[in-house]
Each structure stands twice: as structure tokens, then as C-alpha cells.
Design goal:
Radius of gyration: 16 Å
CATH architecture: Sandwich
Largest sheet: 5 strands, antiparallel
Shape: elongated
Number of domains: 1
CATH class: Mainly Beta
Order of helices and strands: EEEEEEEEH
CATH topology: Jelly Rolls
Strand content: over 45%
Number of helices: 1
Amino acid sequence: MPIKTFRGLLTDSVQQKIRLSTKDGKTGYRIIKLDIIPEAPIASDIEAVVKIFKITQSTATNTVDFSDGNLLGCAVWWGGTTGADDPQDWVQIFDREIFNQDIYVTGVFSGGTFKCNYYLELETINMTDNAAAVSTLRDIRLNPQVGG
């Protein structure tokens, strides 16, 4: 299946919407890659938490809760200028879940003064009428704003 890529630059505690929904809902997506790197990775000590959600978030946080059914993926970066702190990047993708609605990317960064780049690859999947309806209804139930 074709791959769609998205990239962006997040500021601290700001949410970005990635528009994926279609009129018929028959195009599904699955995360296959999520990478992050701060805008200035060796300028100073940096910690970043970037998360991807199925529904809009009221606030961006640096906590990660794997039991949150709306969390699709998470990446954490930490590193610094001392040389002893080698940059680290950790990525977790959940269950290769298929979704057919917009997704939301949030980022929280140490000190709140940094920006962080993200790169996201999504596999596109043709969905049957039934699968599209189930996915759309599930998303509407979780987030009433999806329908309106």
C-alpha cells in the first residue's frame, strides 16, 4: 500500500492536527514510523515528549499512559551538550491500529523554550464499507467533535 508522510515543527504544549478524514471514510491509515529531533539538538540539554492521538487533546502533557485508548504513538528524546548525554530517541507504536479520521500531534519540551521536528509515515489501507463505518462510529463515540 502507498505511504503518506507528514512532517512538522512543534512548539511547546501546542497541538497540530493532521487532516486524514475523507468523505466516504474508506481510506484507513496505520502508523509505520515516528521520528523526532529537536530543532537545535545539541544547543542545550533537551527533553521532548511527542505523542499522537486519535482525538483532540485539551492540554499537551509530558506523561505517557499506555492504557489511554486514544494514544496511537509516542516518541521521547533526551540529550545534551555535555558529551556525556548522547542523544536518545525512543519510539513506541501501538498495535498497528487502523484509523480513518484526523489525528493530533502534541509536544512538551523541557524548559518550554525548544521546538521539535516530527516525521510521521502512515500506511494507507483501503477499507470495506463495514470497516470504514465501524472505525468512523468508534471515533465519533470517542470524540463527538469528529462528527461536527
